[in-house]
Every structure is written in C-alpha cells, then in structure tokens.
Amino acid sequence: MAEKEADLVTDLLQHLSISDRVNSVEYAAEKNVDHQKIVGVIKSIQTHVGVVDAKQQSSSTWNLTTEGKSLEENGSYEFVIYQRVPEEGIAQSELVKDKKDKIGFSKAMSNKWIKMDKSGEKPKIVRMDGINPVDKVKECLKLVKNGESIPDKDRSDLKKRKLIEEIIVKSYEISKGENFTTKLQKAATDLTAQMIQDGSWKNTDFKDYNYLAMGIKPQAGHLHPLLKVRSVYRQIFLEMGFTEMPTNNYVESSFWNFDALFQPQQHPARDAHDTFFIADPAECNTFPADYAERVKKVHSEGGYGSQGYRYDWKYSEAKKNLLRTHTTAVSSRMLYKAAQEGFKPCKFFSIDRVFRNETLDATHLAEFHQVEGVVADYSVTLGDLMGVLQAFFHKLGIRKLRFKPAYNPYTEPSMEVFSYHEGLKKWVEIGNSGVFRPEMLRPMGLPEGVNVIAWGLSLERPTMIKYGIDNIRDLVGHKINLQMVHDNPVCRMDF
Ligand code: FB9
User: Fold this and answer.
1) Cα(219)–Cα(71) distance, integer angstroms
2) In a domain, 435, yes or no
3) In a domain, 286, yes or no
4) N or C, which end of the chain is more exposed by having fewer CB within 10 Å?
C-alpha cells in the first residue's frame, strides 16, 4: 500500500474511533483529497473482515456546466442583450452579431424586455417602458454554484438550457464494525511451513481469497496477418481435398525450378537480374540422370509433338543452385514422384516463400509467399481449371471471376484471373493459372491422357488489401509496427 494511502487508513480509523459514522464525500472534502482515493482506502480496510461496516449510498447534486459557469460570471445572454439596447434604440443587425446574441435576443423578446419599434424611418429594437428586469438566470446559477436549492421550474429551465447538470455521487457511510480497531494487522497472504510447524496459523488473520480476481494476462504471441491469411487459404485447400506439398527447401536446382518446367536456359527469368543464384554450394547434381536426359532431349530436339527450343541444353546450367523463384519447382518434384511411384490422380497445394531478384517498390520485395494449387488427373481440361478456380475463390467470398488469356513458359493455355473489387471499384488481378505443357509432363513419365491444371497467387496482395496496408514494408520486415500484429482482428477473408 502506498505510504500516503497508509496514512489515510490510519487517519480515517482514528476519525471513526471518535465519531459514530463517517461519510466518504464529507471526509474527502475535509481532507481535500479526491473522493475516489477515499473509496480506495475504504475498500482496502474492508479486506480486514469486521473492522468497519460500509453502506453505499447515492446522492445527487447539481453542478454548473462550462456554459453555465460563463453565464454565472458574465450574466445571461438575454440580460447582456437588454443592457446593450441604448435609450434611442438600435438596429437588430447591429445588436445581434453571433449565436449567443441570437439566443439572448430571442429570450429578451420572449421576456418582453425589448420590442421592435417600426414607427420611425427604419425599424429598431428598443427597451420596453416602465420595466427594470433582473437577471434571474445569473442569480439562480449563483445559488446552484453555492450548493443552495432553487425552485423546480427554474432548475428545469437551466437544465433544458444545459447550464446545469445532475451529478450522481456514490458515497459510503462507514461505522465501526464488530472487530473495529485503529491498528490494522496486515492480513497474511501466505500459509508458511513455519506457521504450520509452530501452530501460529490458528490465530493468524488471513486475507480472504478474491475468487473474482482475473489472472495475469499472458503476453501470448500473436499470429502475423500473413500467417492468419495463410491459415485461411490452407483451410480452403484442405476442405477441397488437396494435400500440402513439402516446401521446406528454399534452395533449389535450376533443373527443378526451370528445366523440368520446360523453361529454356536462355529465358530472361533465368538471368541473375531476376534470380538469386547460390555461390556456395553453387551446383547440385542429384537430379535423376535418366529423367535429365529426357528433359535435355525435349528442350534441344523436341518430342511428344513439340519441336522443342532447338538449342544446346547444358547440364552446367541445370546444375546451378538458386533460391526458388516459384513453388512450381516443388510441384514439378511432386509430379515426377507421382509418375515414378505409379500415377494415381492427385491434388496438391503449397503456400511458402519464393525469391525474385526484381526491382523493389511499395508493393514488391525480393521475396513473397506464393500460393499454388495443382490438380493431376486423366483428361482434366481448361474448363475444369475454370471450375476449380470458381470453387476456390468462392470460398473466399468471390463470386465474379474473369479469365484473360496469358503466357507462361510452362503452361499452355494460360489465364490471368480477375475479380471485381467492390471496395476499390475495379477489376483486380487475383492470380495466374494454366495447363502444364506436355513437354513438361511427358518426360516425367506421367501416362498419356494425364493432364495437370494449376494456378497461383500471392499471400501478400490479399493480406495488404484485407488489412488496408499500402506499403509492403508495413506488413513485413524489421520496421513493422508490432502493435499492428498484436491488434489486428481475427482474419475473415471478405474481398
Ligand atoms: O496474388 C495476386 N493478386 C491477388 C490475389 C488475391 C487477392 O485477394 C484474394 C481473393 C481474396 C487479391 C490480389 N496476384 C499474383 C496478382 C497480382 O498481385 C500481381 O501483380 C502479383 N503477382 C505475384 C507475382 O508477381 C511477381 C501475384 C503473384 C503471383 C503471380 C503468379 C503466380 C503466383 C503468384 C502463379 C502461378 C502459376 C501459374 C500457372 C501454374 C502454376 C502457378
């Protein structure tokens, strides 16, 4: 207990020992202490059972509002207006300058203190003859300020004009309890081994349990908005029967990231300006040799109905390690594995970080989280892709989709996906999609007739739209405001 409060406890108990009762409001005024402080002192004394009896009571009192204080000091608006009307009268436009003058003028007219005189050349405001008005409002406000009563009608007038307000004061009447004492024994809060051993627990005053006490709020962790959105997407994929791919390798070989996807070795995306290559270990050579031979052949000579790219495909390029530029690298691994293990129709998804050596701006960093869905089955078509996209985005509350032809090196046909954003009032690109090319699928060993449809989007774009974040650096990175992470609402993807 603070020293000051301990003094107040002792003083209040002393006060009570010489008087039968103490009222908390009166005592606070006498001590010139805030009433709430006295209430706190009474509550701390009550933890010592039976020392005092405290009865709460409510009383109402009237206080002047800020405007009321001003009129009590300067006079009512109507009396000020009356005093400003000279013997010879005054034009209304001269007399009434602002809102307060308008109130005063109206009141003075209704009190019949002033009137309009139209007998002369121009109408003017003059005082009524034979009266000597008193500023009753000011007088009543002074009485209220001094805590004196005024007639009910006057009080309701002042209340209606918001010049006074009723304050309900909850106070305590305290009196001596059956265990009254002026010396409080600090109630024990712990039962110690010593007390049990020497039996002193039997006459120790223990503080009552406070069963209503709230536990200390655990400083639990909070999911980052990106991870909240990730869990929404993950749930949607799982509901749709998709299996999550193992994406726990940021470092990938160029073979799985590009060559297996029939992306030619001279493609600009494979340039160091777009891709982060790894210096050490710079090379990987654990991709399957026989499969690599089929990939080499389809790039350089073609096959499966394709003329290929007709260039000299190099192992040295395929061996280069890099930070994966898309999770489609993992999709290619999974599809190869499915083919090699005896193909059965399958649906995979992934949500994980990818890295691109691109120009940074307010909405793009050198990495982002890619969301990818893959469906492999006999005779799946572009129509199935449109259908699965409708179903996927429908679960995010998106009804209207539009598909626009696009180009990807590893899918043909390809489509960009758009949705109309009611908030932004425009069509927004929400992803990309396509049918994997036979030059990618056949060398894997997938049976004839098996097609694979896939689509992708990012995690950052929907998260930024959802949480109204314009700059990606306010969402991810070492400068974000952690309070945003702490405060953001539970994620409900409404687009
Ligand atoms: O996420 C994107 N936009 C988006 C997504 C969702 C959303 O709100 C949710 C519905 C509620 C709002 C916006 N885009 C893809 C579109 C644009 O933001 C684009 O400017 C940025 N794109 C990223 C790539 O940019 C470097 C987003 C990212 C992207 C693009 C393509 C793929 C994945 C991510 C892909 C793919 C793909 C294609 C075929 C087969 C397999 C994968």
Assistant:
1) 52
2) yes
3) no
4) N
Identify whether residues 57 and 29 lie together within a single domain: yes
Distance 355 CA to ligand 1 centre (A): 14
Which tokens sit at 184?
């409080």
* 356 CA closest ligand 1 atom index: 26
Whether 333 and 440 share a structural domain: yes
pTM of the model: 0.62
The answer to whether 377 and 449 are in contact (CB under 8 A) is no
Measure 433 CA to ligand 1 centroid, in angstroms: 9
Summarize pLDDT for 238-255 with one digit per residue, the tens. Answer: 999 999 999 999 999 999
Tens of pLDDT along 118-163? 998 899 999 999 999 999 999 999 999 998 999 999 999 999 999 9
Parent domain of 36: 3-63+174-203
Task: Find out whether the beta carbon of 411 lies less than 6 Å from any atom of ligand 1.
Answer: yes
Tell me the Ramachandran region of residue 362: left when phi exceeds 0, alpha when psi lies from -120 to 50, beta otherwise.
alpha
Is there an atom of ligand 1 within 6 Å of 434 CB?
Answer: yes
CATH number, position 367: 3.30.930.10
- Does an H or E element contain 172, and which? strand 164-176
The answer, yes or no, to whether any atom of ligand 1 lies below 6 A from the CB of 327, is no
